Every structure is written in C-alpha cells, then in structure tokens.
Amino acid sequence: MINTHLYNLADPAFIEHCAQQMGNEGVCILPEFLNPQAVQVVRHEADELVPIAFRSSSNATPYLGPANEEFPLGHPRRTLTQGSVEVIAYDQFRANDSLRALYEWDPLLEFIRGCLGLQKLYRYGDPLGALNLAVMRSGDALGWHFDMADFVVSIAIQSSIKGGEFENAKQIRSNDDENYPAVQRVLNDQSPDLVRTEPMTPGTLMLFNGRWSMHRVTAIEGERARYVALLAYDTKPNTDSSETLKMSRYGRLPSTMKSAH
Ligand SMILES: O=C(O)CCC(=O)C(=O)O
C-alpha cells in the first residue's frame, strides 16, 4: 500500500527528517504516502462501510469543554464552535480491510514511533477509537479546536469537491502561554497570517501535534464526502477513552460479548 518509491520507512535519515519537522513545526506531511491503487482500494472499502457510520455533532469551546462564564464575552474559553462528522469505529472494520491491515502492521507503528522521537509507542487500547474513518458530508465542518492527545496520524482518502480544508494555526499556544489574544483573533477570522492550509490530498499521511496547534476542517461543499482515516497511538499501553467520549462519538460502548462464531 505504501509508496516505497518515495518513502523508505526504515531509513534512519528519513525518520530523522520527519522527527525534525515534528519538532520545529508540530506537523509533518507526507504526500502520496499511499500509492494510487491503495487509495482506490481504501476508498472502495470506505464506500462499503459508510452506511453504518455513526453521525454526531458537537458544540464546544476550542478546549473541547463547555463555555466558561467566568471569562468575558468573546474570550476563547467562552466561545463555542460547532462540528459534525460521521465515524466508522475500529470494531466496524472487517478483518480484511486494508486500512485495518495498515494500522496493525508493526513497521508502520515503528516508523511513527521514530518520527515522534519516542522510546515506546503503542496502538490505542480503545476498541472503538484506535482506528477511525471520519466521513464528512455537505454542510459538515469541524470547528477550531485543540486536541487532548499529543499527536494524531491521519491519512487523507477522499477530498470533497469544495471546502473540507484542514486549517492550522500552528503552535499558537505552548505549555506556558495560552496566547488567548491570538487564539481569539483566529476564532474571529481576524488573523489569516497565523493560519495555513495543510495540503491533504488523497494518499497523504499527516503526523500532527494538535495539542498546541489550533485547527479546524472547513465546511464541506458538494456531493462527494470527505474521507480521512485517523490512526491513534499512545505512549502507554492499553490507553482507552472514557465512556462519555465513546457515547458522544460512537453512540454506543464496545460489546463485551464475544461472538461464538
Ligand atoms: O478530519 C481531519 O482532517 C481532522 C480531524 C480532527 O481535527 C479531529 O478529529 O480532531
């Protein structure tokens, strides 16, 4: 599936280049990471899975919580942004689906570990959230937000006809500076200088640290849905998400009953 003409996942110099990008920019974009045939196969499998996707919508601050009225009107902690998305959960992928095979392939985990400069990296322990296919249709968008996790790996599978851009206010906050004035300007569309569009053409793999970079997906326009695969990892084994998060994103909890068949 991987475009080995362009990328050698075992090449230490390439891994070092990606690690430097992550360190300097908080984002590393690898265009044409999947070869065109693989993109076609994944898109076809996604088309088959989308009828069972779960649709959810959210209305939260960029910090993924409710508005905090202790802050003045217009403050980022008091500003809500909207989102809507459909998701295929990890346990909905079929045994032979290629995205699942890619996610479960150890050399990819090892490559990502190297790019993130980590000693240990594990696939997420969440039976629903470890691998997601996010499907966004006409009118869907994801409002400006920071992620709770340190990093996300996404692979673009299909672009919408218009909109659906991944916009990034790169490293706009840090551990010791929330930088609320700049965050507020971005929320009000007053600082285009701080925002760039990451080129997520189908087949692109993006490593992204969304904890410090505020990002959004602009509204989808047109009939073709936007498909993005989200691969989740953690520095600790067996990390799981809360039941509240599962209920809001997937509308259910994982089944604990194993089928006898
Ligand atoms: O769909 C994308 O490209 C990004 C999704 C995202 O920002 C998120 O799930 O937090």
Please tell me about this protein's structure:
The chain has 261 residues and is of the alpha+beta class. It has a single domain (12-248), classed as Jelly Rolls (Sandwich), CATH 2.60.120. The protein has 6 helices and 15 strands. The chain has helices at residues 12-25, 36-49, 98-103, 106-115, 180-187, 243-250; strands spanning 27-30, 54-60, 81-88, 122-123, 131-136, 142-145, 152-158, 162-163, 166-169, 196-198, 205-208, 214-217, 220-221, 226-231, 233-234. It has a 7-stranded antiparallel β-sheet, sandwiched between helices. Helix 1 (12-25) packs across helix 4 (106-115). It is globular. It starts with 11 loop residues before the first helix and ends in an 11-residue tail after the last helix. The protein binds 2-oxoglutaric acid.
In short:
This protein is an alpha+beta fold and 261 residues long. The chain contains 6 helices and 15 strands.
CATH level-two architecture: Sandwich
How much strand?
Answer: 15-25%
CA-to-CA gap between the ends?
30 Å
Would you tell me the overall average pLDDT?
Answer: 95
Biggest sheet statistics: 7 strands, antiparallel
Task: Set out the fold topology.
Elements: H1 12-25, E1 27-30, H2 36-49, E2 54-60, E3 81-88, H3 98-103, H4 106-115, E4 122-123, E5 131-136, E6 142-145, E7 152-158, E8 162-163, E9 166-169, H5 180-187, E10 196-198, E11 205-208, E12 214-217, E13 220-221, E14 226-231, E15 233-234, H6 243-250
Antiparallel strand pairs: 1-11, 2-3, 3-5, 4-15, 5-14, 6-12, 7-11, 7-14, 8-13, 9-10, 9-12
Helix pairs in contact: 1-4
This protein binds 2-oxoglutaric acid (AKG).
Domain Fe2OG dioxygenase: 111-237
InterPro entries: BesD/HalB-like, Oxoglu/Fe-dep_dioxygenase_dom
Pfam family, one: HalD
